[in-house]
Write a structure and sequence with these properties.
signal, CalX-like_sf, Immunoglobulin-like, 10 strands, elongated, mainly beta, Calx-beta domain-containing protein
Amino acid sequence: MKLSRNILYLFVSVLLFSACSKNENDTYDLRYVHIMDNESSTVNISDKANVVSTYGIYLSGPQVLEPVTVTYKITVGDGLTEGVDYELINPASEVKFLPGIYDMPVRIRWMANPVDPAKNNTVVIELLSVSNPAFNLGLPGKDQLQIRLIITKFH
């Protein structure tokens, strides 16, 4: 009885371990950089807001031992004026991820000021390049989701 139970355990263990590695993709090997706010690529901010908002650029993948630099650009629509509607707290166009760091902020101070709804009242933060060629821009997949964050100031 004890021998048959041990054989059964051995058989089940062999089945489990033999099937585990077939046709699996190791998702932890995917390396990518993306930008988002609360898991979204679009954000709305009221024109009555007086607040500093933080938008995250994220490095995803296994740990790297050298710094990774990500460059980005900020494009502002014709309905917004710097110093009146918003202020870039960190005006640099790149962030550097040191080993062990996986998120870096882009901060914008929003100022209460009415907007013209007929104009383009957006700020777009778009990832342009990454210093380590092992990393892709945007989420994995052909659509490159979260390669840009669109912030709309509304009335």
